[in-house]
Here is the input.
Amino acid sequence: MAACSVEELLAKAEQEEAEKLRSITVHKELDLDFDVGSLLACDKNRIESRDFRGQKKEDFLRALARDNTQLLINEIWKLQTERVEEAIVAKLPEPSTRLPREKAPLKPRPPTKWEQFAKLKGIQKKKKTNLVWDDTAKEWRRRWGYKRAKDNTKEWLIEVPETADSNEDQFSKRTRAKKERVAKNELNRLRNIARAQKVKSPGVGLLPKAQQSRDELAQAVSVARTSTASAGRFQDRLAKEKAPRNSGKRRKFEPLIGDFSSERQKQLELLKVLDSRRPKLDITKAVNAQMRQEDREEAAAKHGRKGGKGRAGRGGKMAGRRGKRGKAEGGRGGGKKRD
Here is the structure.
């Protein structure tokens, strides 16, 4: 191994230090086109083939990517910045480059009814810890969900209030109240979704109104009828009760996913029929048509023979009558002479 002088070592160390601490100023013949909103930089400068071949490809591409990235970061630092939780953040502008994508960009979620109320009243959302101290279990437990702290549904003894009925089952009352809370939360969730989609939330049965219309009463009767175990199939009808609307059979469509063998077979049969020059021959139908044609011709020929005899006979009788009449007229005028 050849010995290195002190000057060479110092020069090599300075070069490595310069590589680590490069200048943020990058010189380009043509300015780059920036779209800071999309963090995009387009370099239109020409790449010299000699430089590309003279050094390693990886080193050349790494240096080119470093310079262009430095120019993009310089453009970001020109924007307005602010400090958020010990970090400097820059607000990016709207992107100007239209990038192709399969679906439309997601729209911001509309606020719920509670979020609108909190914004109106100025209520700030406070972040709570997930664990709280449970005095009964003497340990840290979750605030919500399974094995939560202060879970009163696991109590084996419940004190009966003074205002409550002594014969009322407090355990079933507590279970029923929990189910009602869960159903109320689910209803509010569905209403928020309907409000976000700008559709009317459907109601079940009779809604609280001053007066119900005929259609609403009919809908309530239909819901009550189909709420049985048999979905109203064996429910007796009232006198003069009309059949509910939209109770007919619904069309069944093929599934969009799954086995497509039946659909493929139908399409192939349809293509065969369309591709064939001659129409598809139905033997039974053709034989029946031929038999009907022969019966029709035979009946027409038979009817023609009978009709011909009748006309000939009538013609003969009429001819005979005309002959007798002619003779009688001739006999009467036989004595007269004609010029």
